[in-house]
Specification:
Two copies of one chain form a homodimer.
Chain A: E1 2-5, E2 9-12, E3 17-26, H1 27-30, E4 40-42, H2 52-70, E5 80-85, H3 91-96, E6 104-106, H4 113-127, E7 132-139, H5 141-148, E8 164-165, E9 168-175, E10 181-187, H6 202-221, E11 230-233, H7 237-250, E12 259-261, H8 262-265, E13 278-279, H9 281-297, E14 303-311, H10 315-319, E15 326-335
Parallel strand pairs in A: 3-4, 5-6, 5-7, 8-13, 11-12, 11-14
Antiparallel strand pairs in A: 1-2, 2-10, 3-9, 7-9, 10-15, 14-15
Helix pairs in contact in A: 6-7
Amino acid sequence: MIRRIGKYTIGFEETPSIIGYASVAGKMENEGPLGGSFDKVIYDSYDGLDTYEQAESMLQTEAVSLAISKAGLKADDIDCIFAGDLLNQCTGSSYALLDFNIPYLGQYGACSTMAQGLIMASIFVESGAASIAMCTTSSHFCSAERQYRFPLEYGGVRTPSAQWTVTGSGSCVLKNVKKGPSIARATVGRIVDLGIKDANNMGAAMAPAAAQTLKNYFEDTQTQPSDYDLILTGDLGEVGSKSLYDLLKREGIDISSRHNDCGLIIYDRKKQDVHSGGSGCGCAASVFCSKILSEMCDEKISNILFMATGALMSPTTCGQGAGIPSIAHLINVKNR
Amino acid sequence: MIRRIGKYTIGFEETPSIIGYASVAGKMENEGPLGGSFDKVIYDSYDGLDTYEQAESMLQTEAVSLAISKAGLKADDIDCIFAGDLLNQCTGSSYALLDFNIPYLGQYGACSTMAQGLIMASIFVESGAASIAMCTTSSHFCSAERQYRFPLEYGGVRTPSAQWTVTGSGSCVLKNVKKGPSIARATVGRIVDLGIKDANNMGAAMAPAAAQTLKNYFEDTQTQPSDYDLILTGDLGEVGSKSLYDLLKREGIDISSRHNDCGLIIYDRKKQDVHSGGSGCGCAASVFCSKILSEMCDEKISNILFMATGALMSPTTCGQGAGIPSIAHLINVKNR
């Protein structure tokens, strides 16, 4: 049974469980604080293939394949998969999933895609539209740089507020089994544009969307930050996380003692030259599907909010001088 | 209640109803056979704005706005909207929906997006995840040409199998009200790639996906083409429709007496120079949300299959020599 809680939040009575998950990451991500916790590491940017785009698809293929086998299933058991990525026309996903032959619904939420996919999969499983559903997403530093910024060979200098696109992927398998990490509630975000136009400061552009979704969730559920073991944002980075604290303080909400950000967790910013932190769909996905779900399975944490944020602009709209519309989708994951 | 029918099909017991719909189209579309049946017509490619991309967003803004008001609602009544388009990073939708302040879940199904959005909205409404949900999509000839092909000023010659991107948008509002055109069943498609690499022959690339989804649906529901008043594909055009007939005949299925295609309906190919027919997300959306839903409301037709098809490649993957993965999502719309 699904019921609506307040104006923006959805509650799941069966609480669809994550029965399998997997993460794949690049060499640099494995050299950071989460080194050793990914299911697979890609040491070559091309992963032995011809293009960065093919390598990105392969990250997703591997993450989906591993998540299915860790759940003790085969591809034919999956009723539906939700996937998306940052590449134009979401081709990272469409080529990645080609050989699985699983009914596919493409999602576009930019870097919020992992949370969006988890919401969709939960609703399908809880409602009976699927017995078993999956979600996945990916990003790749080299394919993102080429598409959004400059050719790598150009060696462009990055601004301090810029973030580093994570090479990685994460994937989850969901089923109603009443055990393990389960999706209890979800808040679908609304698009926000406060007029930030600097494509090298995504954190600041996304923070207002994060603040809005979090505020809506706390109001709808009548809970507060201290009710949760962790409030994990997707990839606000250092600049965006500070903006989020500031915006929420104006609303009388202080998350600083509970908050962490996937973009801050994945790299060691003292040793790794990533400026404001990690970003990309694969950032939230690979952190959530490694460290976070492991800690939930080990019962180190048992009630968390996972909110991935996305910047919904394109290089074309930035070039045309438009603002950066952003969004944040939230899920409450609880151990059963 | 949602129940699964066979391996790939979903059945809706409440059958979420389309309580409001609207279409917006360009000048050329209004000069075709459907002239006069669109809710609004844009006579200037820029729609008085600065860029084709802004004009495309405005098509969607208008279609959503009109559908909401035709349903007798206001934006604040809508719990969730599903939208997507062909522009990189789906910016047609993100900028179009900015001011509505409706919870938003971006979809990417290329030209299959209207059927995908209807499936998502139906599942949200039927399951209680939303009381009222919407979907919309758009395309614009000029923004699509610029992004996928050549600058308009170049005046490139088109091959006979090429299709003409429709300037248009369509939008639907869904709610469980037990009257009018309602979604009874849905089949989510699987990605198919039979190796066609010609980006000027999308119809042929998409036909195998259409054949697969239709075959799955007939098997799951134990129905046949003659059970339906109309089997409407999205935008296979002339070349793709012929391929679909051929592929289905091999499976012993003959849809020719019931089939029509939005890409063939929207233009008069004898008078309008559109080669194989119309295409783009806005093709299926604007035809479905004008002529088709009007005929259902007037009870001229009362039990149809609407299957929009999408080609999931990008200019980058085509340039890299990859095949064109395709997908087709189907809904069964019945009058209650």
